[in-house]
Write a structure and sequence with these properties.
heterodimer; A: 146 residues; Rossmann fold; B: 488 residues; five-stranded antiparallel beta sheet; four-stranded mixed beta sheet; 16 strands
Chain lengths: 146, 488
């Protein structure tokens, strides 16, 4: 029996603000929320579509350079976008892959896009990203688990 | 090999540049510059890496036992390859002159699982759109969604093959990412019977799908032979690991180099002193180094690595189905497919089949369930680890001081080995398909198809939303932008 809610957090902990996703995932995992499975990875890929099977809701968490600070929560819909042609997929493309491969509608999905600034190898979170991360964590903490 | 000079001296006055940035369906950010003369003829091709990787600095000062976990963060696509190459190097540092059967087999299981999932992703989801729909088909169709719409079963198999490989990684490394399964001197976990049985239950299907994938590439060659045999094809030296008996071995062996005609340059060389055979050159226009065979020098000593090199360079493949597939590949059209750059795809699927067979055999071996996990001995200050990663030969070289800190690191990754070879492939395509006056999606995709054959990984694991636009620029000789095309 899979958990009804899946959180897919992506990012590289050693690439500056890209660590936002893994950091929030670690906090969520530590909270041991009932009915919630937390999955963290460097990048989204085609097989993540299979992680959506049997879910009531999916929440994607990622660092974003195009988000308003401190974060944005965006509803997601399956979409063909250029990420289909990359080693890494966008959340919308994962939903699209689910739709095509599983021949079914994906579960409702949200994206928590946390504003990020810098992605240097080995760098810590920037000051701005730390603030954005805390604001995003507050939002996550106030959910009645989605 | 004389074309190298023509390439390198072609810059300067009277040239116009076409810039494609970054590559689609290639990991990270890349940029291609085509230098054209006033008549619009291609005179030079350069694949640029725009981001300084800084890998070596990243691990300096860290205790050596942290390195196998840290280096997984260098690349979001092949973290397991870095994990294992680092451990092979650090085996030498901790004096582990041999691995226990359990450790060796679990590492191999992890490695071949990585090969399987990486090759599946590349073929089914990155390259098959080009091959199934043609290089000139419209961009909106030429992607995995297009494949899924036209060939839904193929797309599904691609996802499940990759998932199977990822599951092998999970059970051997402990986690889907940031695994700690391999450690200097061995491994830190075995596989449970439950995990083994679950994987073994799928192994037959995985082999079947892999066989079908080999046949699919063959059919594509049958259908498009005249185009495929010539596309981006050029003679090249080759480098790979080889087992002592000449068998394909992607985890361990000696270094084998052959010239463009297949003649031996060196064979079964101990990789722990790789620098006696391979040196690295730098060029002012690229952050990526240019390795070359020392004996032949920087101009003529460039070479190619990866599936095509390995499958054509080994004496045999030690699993029956993949060996049969290798023989058919080598014999096809008197070796024309084995010489073609697009032969990379065929060779890659033969390796995926081999990986599926190896995984199946290892899963039946009870040594993965129980046994001694680690060995060690007298510590040394230096270690070199080499393996054949999905994209080619991967070298990790560390020096460790008396405080167990890494004081120097040198990494030569697969894409770096193929640096000059990719430039050659781009130029071959540009000479044939671009006249320098008209930029179309179809023409540009020919260049991308050539690069994708090598499956390069041009950057590492950052991917944040909004970071990967595709931009095409046309620059006049004075540097002004004549035309820009952008895909967000």
């Amino acid at each position: 029996m899979v958990a009804p809610v899946v959180v897919l957090a992506v990012g590289n902990p050693s690439r500056g603000d890209d660590a936002i996703g893994p950091e929030l995932a670690a906090r969520l995992a530590a909270a041991e929320l009932p009915g919630v499975e937390v999955i963290v990875d460097f990048q989204l890929q085609v097989e993540h579509a299979l992680d959506l099977q049997g879910r009531r809701l999916a929440l994607f968490i990622d660092a974003a350079v195009d988000a308003q600070a401190p974060y944005e929560v965006r509803p997601l819909a399956p979409a063909r976008d250029p990420s289909h042609t990359s080693h890494a997929l966008s959340p919308a493309a994962v939903l699209e892959t689910f739709q095509r491969v599983c021949d079914a509608l994906p579960p409702p999905a949200l994206l928590l896009a946390v504003r990020a600034e810098s992605f240097d190898l080995g760098a810590p979170l920037t000051l701005a990203a730390r603030g954005n991360l805390e604001a995003a964590w507050l939002w996550l903490s106030e959910r009645d688990w989605l | 090999m004389t074309e190298a000079k023509e390439l390198e001296t072609a810059g300067g006055d009277g040239l116009r540049r076409v810039v494609i940035e970054p590559m689609t369906r290639v990991e990270g950010h890349g940029k291609v510059t085509l230098m054209l003369d006033e008549d619009g003829h291609v005179r030079q091709a350069r694949l640029h890496i725009v981001e300084f990787r800084g890998f070596e600095k990243f691990v300096q000062g860290r205790p050596y036992w942290e390195v196998p976990v840290m280096v997984q963060r260098l690349c979001g696509i092949c973290p397991v390859s870095h994990h294992l190459a680092a451990c092979k190097a650090l085996d030498q540092v901790v004096g582990a002159t041999y691995l226990t059967p359990t450790a060796e087999k679990i590492r191999r299981l992890m490695h071949y699982g990585q090969i399987l999932q990486s090759h599946a992703l590349h073929f089914f989801h990155l390259s098959s759109p080009d091959l199934l729909f043609g290089f000139d088909s419209e961009i909106g169709r030429r992607n995995i969604v297009g494949v899924a719409a036209a060939y839904p079963e193929l797309a599904r198999q691609g996802v499940l093959l990759r998932r199977f490989g990822q599951e092998i990684i999970r059970v051997t490394a402990g986690k889907r990412i940031h695994g700690t399964g391999a450690v200097p001197g061995g491994v830190n976990r075995t596989v449970t019977e439950t995990e083994r049985d679950a994987l073994l239950g799928e192994a037959g299907q995985i082999i079947e799908w892999s066989e079908a994938a080999v046949q699919l590439v063959r059919q594509l060659f049958d259908r498009n032979f005249e185009e495929y045999r010539r596309f981006a094809t050029f003679p090249a030296h080759s480098l790979s690991l080889i087992r002592a008996d000449g068998a394909l071995d992607l985890y361990h062996g000696g270094l084998r180099a052959r010239d463009a005609q297949g003649g031996a340059l060196f064979d079964h060389v101990d990789y722990s002193r790789y620098w006696e055979q391979i040196l690295e050159n730098v060029k002012p226009w690229s952050y990526m180094k240019f390795p070359f065979l020392r004996e032949l020098g920087p101009e003529d000593g460039w070479y190619r690595v990866g599936p095509l090199t390995r499958v054509t360079g080994c004496d045999f493949i030690p699993t029956p189905l993949a060996e049969q597939a290798r023989r058919e590949f080598i014999a096809y059209a008197d070796g024309a497919a084995a010489r073609a750059t697009l032969g990379f795809h065929w060779a890659r699927m033969i390796e995926m089949l081999h990986a599926a067979e190896v995984v199946s055999e290892l899963l039946k071996d009870d040594d993965i369930l129980d046994g001694e996990l680690r060995t060690d001995g007298a510590h040394h200050g230096r270690g070199v680890g080499v393996l054949e990663a999905p994209r080619g030969t991967l070298i990790h070289h560390y020096r460790v001081d008396e405080h167990d800190q890494v004081v120097r690191a040198n990494l030569i990754v697969s894409t770096t080995h193929n640096n000059e070879a990719m430039n050659r492939a781009i130029r071959e395509v540009a000479l044939r398909y671009l006249d320098g006056r008209e930029l179309t999606e179809g023409l540009l995709n020919h260049i991308e198809v050539a690069i994708r054959a090598f499956d390069p990984c041009l950057s590492c694991a950052t991917h944040a939303l909004g970071k990967m636009p595709l931009m095409l620029e046309l620059l006049e000789p004075d540097g002004t932008v004549a035309h820009t095309l952008r895909r967000d």
